Amino acid sequence: MTSPAASAARTDVRFPSGETTCAAWLYAPAGGGDGPRPAVVLGHGLGAVKEMGLDAYARRFAAAGYVALAFDYRHFGESGGEPRQLLDPARQLDDWAAALAYVRGLPQVDADRVAIFGSSFGGGHAIVMAARDRRVAAAIAQCPFTLGIRSAMTIDPKGTVGVTVRALRDVAARVLGRPPVRVALAGAPGTPALMNAPDALAGYTALMPDDREVAGEVAARVALQIPLMRPGAKAKDVRCPILFCVCDKDTVAPVGPTLKYAAQAPRGEVVRYPVGHFDIYLGEPFERAVADQVAFLQRHVPVAAG
């Protein structure tokens, strides 16, 4: 059996978004084939970059015959945008739209057969984008962020106070034209971090690449936005097939709201895994999830049209 790593060629690319460009990895299936192929656009979670596990998913999709694009949001990783580590949900959705436009313009891609894959915070974005863009052929929302207030409640009271103080200081810094005040993405219970459940720090750290340093902080102002966000509410407006990959032991994106919203998607499918939020990226849970995702794509966006 040919390994996924040997089945796809990866190229560094950039595409325009707003005032700058987003960095991405473009994967071409081995063997080429006749005519344009379907594609999958992949975006990551809260403050994460493509080096934190997206490569594995993209390679599996490419090994199954799909063109795949894994990208970094503006302000993160190798993408442009100042200030660095600015997590702006509206700008990230614009980056998704720009990534879709770029992929649809590739000569090797069938523009009407482009699917999207989002994980965690990006899973919420995938729901919103599938509702907004009726050309999206299929969507995968993995351990998705669906209801901000419930995710905010996973931070313990001591941590919430610290995060709120930093967020207010960051808002003041923006008004005064000063550099952002940052907050940790993941931390131990009781510490000021956007994720401080017992498994958050170890889980997030396990996704960090060995060959490059990745900032583990973001501008704290986003903490005031997160409780008001309800990306899952857009599931009812998604007309394409959408797969919800749900982690039953999720301590970051609570399962209850996700299952409620998934039931409202007209063509929604749900697969549940007995693991935590960060477990699905690695080992056997990853193998199970990505196999289900490839099977979903092959049913709804087959490589051979028709």
Automatic annotation (TrEMBL):
Keywords: Hydrolase. Residues 36-267 form the Serine aminopeptidase S33 domain. It comes from the Bacteria. The keyword Hydrolase applies. The keyword Hydrolase applies. InterPro entries: AB_hydrolase_fold, FrsA_esterase, Hydrolase_4. Transmembrane segments: none annotated. GO terms for molecular function: hydrolase activity. PANTHER family: DIENELACTONE HYDROLASE DOMAIN-CONTAINING PROTEIN-RELATED, POLYKETIDE TRANSFERASE AF380. Belongs to the AB hydrolase superfamily. This is Alpha/beta hydrolase. The lineage of its organism: Bacteria, Bacillati, Actinomycetota, Thermoleophilia, Solirubrobacterales.
